[in-house]
Amino acid sequence: MYKIVRKEALRPTVTLYEIEAPLIAKKAQPGQFIILRVDEKGERIPITINAYDPEKGTVTIIVQTVGATTEKLTHLNEGDCLQDFVGPLGKATETEGKKKVCVVGGGVGCAIAYPVLKKFHDDGAEVHAVVGFKNKDLVILEDDFKKSSDKLIVCTDDGSYGQKGLVTDALKQLIDAGNQYDEVFAIGPMIMMKFVSKTTEPYGIPTTVSMSPIMIDGTGMCGGCRLSVGGEMKFACVDGPDFDGHKVDWDLAVKRNQMYMEFEKHKHEETCNLFKKEAE
Amino acid sequence: MANMSLQKNPMPSQDPNVRNKNFEEVALGYTEEQALDEAQRCLNCKNRACMQGCPVMVHIPEFIAEVAKGDFEAAYQIISNTSALPAVCGRVCPQETQCEMYCVRGKKGDPVGIGRLERFVADWHNAHTQAKPEKPASNGHRVAVVGSGPAGLTCAGDLARKGYDVTVFEALHLAGGVLVYGIPEFRLPKAIVQKEVDGLKAMGVTIATDTVIGRTISIDELMEEQGFEAVFIGSGAGLPMFMDIPGVNYRGVYSANEFLTRINLMKAYLPDSDTPIQHPKKVAVVGGGNVAMDAARCAKRLGAEVYIVYRRGMEELPARREEVEHAEEEGIIFKTLCNPVEIFADENDDVNKIRCIQMELGEPDASGRRRPIEKPGSEFEIDVDCVIMSLGTSPNPLIKSTTKGLEINKKGGIVVNEDGLTSRDKVYAGGDAVTGAATVILAMGAGKTAAKAIDEALSK
């Protein structure tokens, strides 16, 4: 069992959990993920690591409430335990040897973008960051990003905070302003990563994306997380999660990820009703 | 006086049309009367031909003699002296190509039902004996076992009996490996696997779940930082193989590993499980091995019409005869001598059709089996909404990529000598991680061999 030592609601549907997991904390690197299970009946869900503290023996994840499992998570409190927490899985992001990079984060994906951005920064790169949110109320980690980047652009879809518009617009402005990036690193919803890749492709800027497909074991056994990258079959759990954004078959990846949407919607409603009943 | 009946006592089973709608065990097991009767078919031959067919050398005539006397617990003690998993082996071993193949009674009529008797004895013990195995006195040596499947559990059990302090590391949340994620409940109830695991724990074995060796901890760290003197790698087979045909990534195309894991490990067929699974209407399972039969029979139990698509003929199916018969009885449709060439989907990428081509058998290939050849112009289509690829696996890259100096063969399997020793000192391996996809009992045999070698190396 893995104890929640800190729980913090960053936004109404975005929650930070710091979990006691000393072995994982010792090994974790930016870009890697964990798989957790909330309880005995729970599904295994992959979540990318936000932070880790080898001394304290904790791993931090930031989770948006979207389905049954994440709903159940929000009903756990500090001191409660997760049934399972395994990792660190996947390969770490390669951050060395870059002079200038732009990290693009979307929504709760920013939670994952942050450790990668910090690593680029600590490894000596000049780091620009573009982070996008739906609106002002959903902005997270702004101070963290500010601290570890040389330039930060916050975008909101509705213009309620920062620059109005999509991250791809802001990224294009930066590139057109003459910034020469060795690499663009994008983490967020698949659709955002797809369009970041489309944006950088004409400029020939190497673009890495962090994929989060459906998976079960996370160790190369089930094959559920397979992607088509440059026409080859790749498994996100052992070959990734980072891939060349210009080579990913995005339409396939997006559709595969929505395979269980109906089930998940139904299960989420069922779970919410259960919690409501308990509350009454 | 021996029972000279030419036929084995038949295995009582659930009716095919009932069992193909539930996940309860198909074979119900012998009654005491049936076991006594079957045991009396054994001639107790001096040369014990049956034993040469057993990878873990169960003392078969001796245990059967105890069954014939009605001393079932004594029979159990004889089996468990050499086998760590009697209740499992009695169910999933391919006895027809092992012990029973050598049985003298099989020369005229059926061989003695050794597997069925083993299962009876193990189940009798589990039902009647509450006493847990005792923890042997410690010899002070520590051994790490990677993977809690049949190879790992056997190795751990043999070492624990000799007083070793053994920790088994398991990547998943439950111990048992393929016994829990792969083989379905209706062939091997998970409570039985749990009982075997609990037995090991009672002997002092530590089971560390949620620990991925190669990620959470490396082999080197186990030995250098955590003080394990030897390591056994029984991490199993790895990445599932898919056909290189158009449409293989559409929604509704599963690997058998994924489909079975969702059902067996995650219990996705139960309403209270949070893990989703497609409930397909028509399924094509591609492949002809035991795993393909398991996937097909699971799909049937989810309510689907199920086809097995296999490129060779019925005679060449690599699955156990018994599994094929069970599948046929349950209404699985065999489309043999045909091979998929393309998978089609609707506008949402959901599978709606598979195109196959008919095959004929040519000259034998390197494996000695006749090579299937496409018949030009014989393509046909089957409407299906799910395709399950059961084509075997290729070795998992995790451990080899994180363990320096571990020699790997061309196919990606770990190279070992006859003792199971790898190219690294005090690092042993066995099971599918070495051989590629094989059987439970072969993995157990490898675990046993390595345990013996580890004991010899550490007690020097």
Q: Could you explain the architecture of this structure?
A:
- Chain A is built from 9 helices and 17 strands.
- Chain A has 280 residues and is an alpha/beta fold.
- Chain B contains 17 helices and 16 strands.
- Chain B has helices at 16-19, 32-39, 60-69, 72-82, 86-92, 99-102, 114-128, 150-161, 178-181, 190-202, 219-224, 256-265, 290-301, 321-329, 397-402, 432-435, 440-458, and strands spanning 142-146, 165-169, 206-208, 230-233, 239-240, 253-255, 282-286, 305-310, 333-336, 338-345, 351-364, 370-374, 380-382, 386-389, 393-394, 427-429.
Summed up:
The complex is a heterodimer of chains A (about 280) and B (about 450). With about 280 residues, chain A is an alpha/beta fold.
Blueprint of the fold:
The complex is a heterodimer of chains A (280) and B (460).
Chain A: E1 2-11, E2 14-20, H1 22-27, E3 33-37, E4 45-48, E5 51-53, E6 58-64, H2 68-74, E7 81-82, E8 84-89, E9 100-106, H3 110-122, E10 126-133, H4 142-148, E11 151-156, E12 163-164, H5 167-176, E13 183-187, H6 190-200, E14 207-210, E15 226-229, E16 232-235, H7 236-239, E17 242-244, H8 250-257, H9 261-279
Parallel strand pairs in A: 9-10, 9-13, 10-11, 11-12, 13-14
Antiparallel strand pairs in A: 1-2, 1-7, 2-6, 3-4, 3-8, 5-6, 14-17, 15-16
Helix pairs in contact in A: 2-9, 5-6
Chain B: H1 16-19, H2 32-39, H3 60-69, H4 72-82, H5 86-92, H6 99-102, H7 114-128, E1 142-146, H8 150-161, E2 165-169, H9 178-181, H10 190-202, E3 206-208, H11 219-224, E4 230-233, E5 239-240, E6 253-255, H12 256-265, E7 282-286, H13 290-301, E8 305-310, H14 321-329, E9 333-336, E10 338-345, E11 351-364, E12 370-374, E13 380-382, E14 386-389, E15 393-394, H15 397-402, E16 427-429, H16 432-435, H17 440-458
Parallel strand pairs in B: 1-2, 1-4, 2-3, 4-16, 6-14, 7-8, 7-14, 8-9
Antiparallel strand pairs in B: 5-15, 10-11, 11-12, 11-13
